[in-house]
Catalase (Tessaracoccus flavus), 754 residues
Amino acid sequence: ATKKSPSKKPAAKKVAPADDAALSAPPPGPGIENPPVEEPTAPVAPPPPKPSQGSPETVTPTGAPTGAPPESKAQQGEYLTTAQGARLRSTDHALKAGPRGPVLLQDHHLREKITHFDHERIPERVVHARGTGAHGVFVANGRAEKICRAAFLKKGVETDVFVRFSTVAGFRGSSDTVRDTRGFATKFYTSEGNYDLVGNNIPVFFIQEGIKFPDIVHAVKPEPDREIPQAQSAHDTFWDFVSLHTEAQAHVAWSMSDRAIPLSYRMMEGFGIHTFRLINEAGETSLVKFHWKPKQGIHSQVWEETQMTAGNDPDFHRRDLYDAIDAGAFPSYDLGVQVMPDSDDETFEGIDLLDPTKIVPEELCPVEIIGTMTLNRRPTNFFAEVEQVMFNPGNLVPGIDITNDPLLQVRLFSYIDTQITRLGGPNFSQIPINRAHCPVNDMFRDGFHQHAVHGGVAPYRPNSLDGGNPAVADDDSGAFIDVPQRVEGAKVRELSESFDDHFSQATLFVRSLTDVERQHLTRAYVFELGKCYEESIRVRQLQCLANIDADLCAEVAKALGLPAPEPTVPPAADVEPSPALSQIRGTWPVTGRKIALIVDADTEPAAITAAKDAVMAAGMLPFVTAPHGGKLGDVVVDRTFLTAASIEFDAAVVVEAPAPAPDAEPTFDAKAGHSTSGKPVDPRVVKMLGEMFRHCKAIAVTPGATAVLEAAGIPADAAGVVAEEPAAAVAELAKLLATHRVWERFPTAKPTAK
Ligand code: HDE
């Protein structure tokens, strides 16, 4: 074989240089010293930066720095151009053979435009397809320093974050308000790399082993023959699976509770679910579970409201999040940890910490707050940010490590793998929203959609040609630590016996609910099982309920018209309720709550302004809701009786009882709009207030507007109904809203734990 020597290279064509001196000058270097060294080589210390590598953390494809403010545009220039930058005269007409002739294949602009359009969609996420995201900042309070060496948990450190909330089962265009688990995924752009906390709003999971994930997902997704129902668990395949696969029962109990129908992403807890292992500066480890606690309180819709919202505003949660951010009512969440000793058996108070279907009650191990996250900016471009963000539980930083939880272990594989299809190749970490906000020098090269123009010739280690760079870090220079945990055992497809208890934590959850929450839970089981066609599935799920709680089983069985079976496992008699699991407790700030101000077409603008001011002074958001759009005097109308819906608002203030407008929906029963005193009220307002009353929302009327109460059949002395002048009424509403709903209006209501 002949080896080509450099001298055999064809000589470059000689062109007479205009300026010999300029051409013979050495070309601009890569910016690093690259002295000849012996191989294999130790890296040059400290490794100098390599600007010519254009490592992806420093610039976006168009040159804007990462983390740049939203005003930095991906596209520039005042003229419309082709993708290659050529200015265009017209993009409305294809090139044709005459104005009435056929379109010419040579129309390069047409082909480029249509080809790009043909490929605009990417596959949606296989689960969690429907979601919404926001930017924010996390500020650590320093309390985690003693257990974790991560830089972003040091006192006062501010870290950029991006959060994506999601439903699990529905397609990307499905409704926000469905009964489902919600995803709560946070990317921390820390100085030591991206850390992703990819959690849910329910602290237990359906399955103990990741290998079963395709099974539960196939069961909950629309049934494969007719592809229905969309974004629902109320169908046979779901209940077939969870009733056979009883480790799902704790999660199912949570999903039948109001937790699965949150009012807002702002009012939802988040949980890391798995136990993680933290490492401190001294190398000591502890086991922790992560919790997000919303400062706005935890709150849900009621079931009827949820169903109405799905039709009225399928984007309800997305709109709510972005409206709140736009209004400056920034949602914020405390991050907390339950810290448990890193014991050999990895249990705490008898609870196996590797079993993701189990929680550790807060009463046994309190949640310690280690920082606060505030969401303060919505995405500039939904696709670029929310659709293209990728999360991965394996995105860890020094100080945070995984455990042997068999669910978590499988996730570590899945999240990278899925992006290859979803984001079209291995370079998804270069997409601006996914880029680390610290130097990245990974020596990964090429692949679809490579955006970096990497310099250097030696993307391998060891090397001498790039000066031995990059260096590997050690403990002192912030290297990631894999905790050297001892592992031994025979290869088996088994789980330890401690995973066998499938019911006691469902019992714990059910017994920790207040009466009203418990009633909602019972009805949810009845609704969902009532939607199953197969009686054998209902019967099998009743058997599971018998093993969870005899009373619950009896109530559901009665409503389904079936006998309540006897338990097949010993009753969990010693289950201590955990009051922390109830959502109805304490009071919360009312900032950002939405108040409808109902007025008539001729209501005095000064009265409306006074009511608006009172609402805003309380930190809440007023929505002037009137018979027609435009303005009333100088007051802008936010909603009309046609566009407004009760589900949009947390409470209402009727500033003036509106008379029926001529354009009122003719299908309304005309009689419904008449108060007993005979004064007619717009039937759309009557309907709205009736719904708000039924959904146990606070309602205030000014003394002159009490006719609306009569017309809507609302007793003036009912709990949570206030008849005051606007300023006093708003103060009263704020008090009522602090507990979210007027709980005593629910028929069962005695808001105390069982
Ligand atoms: Fe996920 N999950 N998951 N999951 N998950 C995905 O990743 C998967 C699990 C969670 O807003 C996918 O990029 C497996 C638990 C959230 O982008 C996929 C298993 C928890 C999100 C995937 C689990 C979650 C996902 C789909 C069992 C709570 C949305 C698209 C081993 C702790 C993230 C994607 C976002 C998304 C796989 C179990 C939460 C396919 C195999 C447990 C919040 O990779």
Summary: The longest strand covers residues 131-140.
